[in-house]
Amino acid sequence: MSKLDVSNHIHRTVGEVVQKRIDFLKTGHKMQDLPEELWHESFKFYMNDPNRKGGPNMRIIRLDPNKPSLTVTGFIFNKFVHPRENRFITVREAARLQDFPDDLIFEGSLGSTQQQVGNAVPVRLAQAVLQSLTHALHKSGKLQTDTLNALSLFSGAGGFDVGAEQVDANGMKIQTTLCVDNWADACKTLSGYFKGRAKVVETDISQIEDPATFYLLESAQTALPDIIYGGPPCQSFSQAGKQKSTFDLRGNLVYDFIRFVNSIRPKAFVMENVSNIKGVQEGELLKELIKAFQKAGYATDAKILTAADYGTPQTRRRMFVIGIREDLHVRPGFPVPTHSMMPSLLDQPYSTVGQALSDLPQAVSNSLKSQGEYAVEMQ
Question: I need a labelling partner for 26 at 20 to 30 A (CA). Which of 33, 162, 333, 361 fits?
Fold first, then answer.
């Protein structure tokens, strides 16, 4: 795909009030930097009552081209303003901030494609974690192959999966053979990217009674996978959510991830979630997760990682729980950061928004009338 023909690169035309906000914003400015007459109504309540929660319009910000972006979410349509142009960023620009390659085409409505990008693991962060895990498996000396087959759960649009394809640890690589999700648009996106290199199955993971048999039938493999990776949906654990999580892991999709690990018993696993899971119920939930993996026979560790530390132009922070089966007698380890805000001889400077967006062609404008669910402009 040429730079003149980039998919998902359409920006919204907004209403008069919102455009005035955008036009007024300088680099790094947010809603509170606007004249009060341009504040969103929810933001006025927020300013008068710090305990009140405002809507996504509170978070409008013009990106700084010389820094990594804040966390990309599904609300880029009314949050991130382009660093130099007076418009919100496009899905493709958000995808660049998540390290997605331009040849991965996001399928579905504008809202769906925005959510697919916002929900994904940054590709370089996924690659760094899987690279470190693969290096540890290589050190065990007990593997008879240079290709590790992988099962991807809760795959979404494929941030983990694209990262897995980029792993090369002393010649040892990862081949994802099966991806599973129940989101039709995301499955179509990922199928288009893989082009047959991996099978993508749209189904509800919680309804799969025998994970091992399911994998063998759907993947057409003769052996179970070496690695399982994925990020169970995390709304109940996020700071924006109501945190209705519970010690009883059976009430969460994280339990299904554990159930798959117990059934298939891969050599290693990686489970990703929001960083706030560490604070849920004073850390007891995370302790229960680690205890469950250890009971299943895995040397397990957990750590919050920042995507910018591994080359992503974004300060997204995520929790990773990793494990290696104890009979392999190696400990899992996390990757050493490769980038820093204060670079030295050992690391590189943070990647920036300006670098990520620099070579994209001009975005195509679209009118509100063609935006479907986004046709009602928030004033």
Answer: 361
Indicate which residues carry an active-site annotation.
Answer: 234
d(CA 343, CA 39): 38
Residue 242's alpha-carbon distances to 183, 250, 271, 367, in angstroms, are 23, 19, 22, 35
Q: What are phi and psi of 19, to 5 degrees?
A: -65, -35
Question: Can you tell me the distance from the alpha carbon of 120 to that of 182, in angstroms, rounded to the nearest whole number?
Answer: 15
Whether residue 325 is predicted with pLDDT greater than 60 in this model: the reply is yes
Considering only CA atoms, which of 268, 252, 273 is closest in space to residue 320? 273
Query: Which pLDDT tens digit goes with each residue over 159-205?
Result: 999 999 999 999 999 999 999 999 999 999 999 999 999 999 999 99
> What share of the chain has pLDDT > 70, as a percent?
87
Q: Is 333 helix (H, G, I), strand (E, B) or coil?
A: coil
Domain annotation for the chain: domains and CATH numbers = 14-120+351-372 (3.90.120), 123-340 (3.40.50.150)
86: exposed, middle or buried (C-beta count within 10 Å: 0-12, 13-18, 19+)? middle
- Give tens-digit pLDDT for 72-81: 988 877 899 9
Residue-wise DSSP of 182-233: S-HHHHHHHHHHHTTSSEEEE--GGG-S-HHHHHHHHH--SS--SEEEE---
Spatial distance between the Cα atoms of 89 and 121, rounded to a whole number of angstroms: 19
According to DSSP, the residues that pair with 320 across neighbouring strands are 272, 303
* pTM listed for this prediction: 0.90
Question: What's the pLDDT score for residue 308?
Answer: 98
